[in-house]
Write a structure and sequence with these properties.
single chain; about 160 residues; alpha/beta; five-stranded mixed beta sheet; two-stranded antiparallel sheet; about 25% helix
Length: about 160
């Protein structure tokens, strides 16, 4: 979660949103949204990106615990927030492609999915990672920058981002 937060937060275009009134905003900070539940389903929470790993980890653990205890936050909670990123994981699959349902043509909240962590013959671990973005806001260059920032966060011992 931390590495993905670093990746999407590093790219201004992935922090950009269309609003219903026709305006466009760019958020300073993003939050991660989807949390795996103990029963196998997903809940929605707000895990704020914090470039400090220790603070991020503590806040993420607290939000995960709250959502697993029944607190539900998210797109339909009346807050009007749109500074989040949808997350999904399929840890059983080493996928090569994944798509998500988009509710309307102006939907511009990025979706990030990751798959199974797979050990390679060379000792490296790989993991499928997919980004879906609104092409009027972001393109391959921006997704590539997000991948690079995500990898940099994974590679760092004490990851600053």
């Amino acid at each position: 979660l931390y590495a993905i937060a670093c990746g999407v937060s590093a790219v201004p275009e992935l922090r950009t949103r269309f609003r219903a009134d026709g305006s466009v905003v760019q958020h300073d900070n993003l939050v991660l949204g989807t949390i795996a539940l103990a029963d196998g389903g997903f809940g929605f929470g707000y895990i704020d990106h914090d470039p400090d790993w220790t603070r991020f980890d503590a806040a993420a653990r607290a939000e995960i615990d709250a959502v697993r205890a029944g607190a539900e936050r998210g797109p339909n909670d009346g807050s009007g927030r749109d500074n989040f990123v949808y997350l999904s994981c399929v840890p059983w699959l080493d996928f090569t492609s994944i798509t998500n349902a988009m509710p309307d043509p102006d939907e511009c909240i990025p979706r990030v999915a990751w798959g199974k962590f797979t050990p390679g013959a060379d000792g490296r671990i790989t993991c499928a990672l997919a980004f879906e973005v609104h092409h009027a806001i972001a393109d391959g260059e921006h997704v590539g920058a997000a991948f690079a920032a995500t990898q940099a966060a994974l590679d760092a011992i004490a990851p600053p981002c």
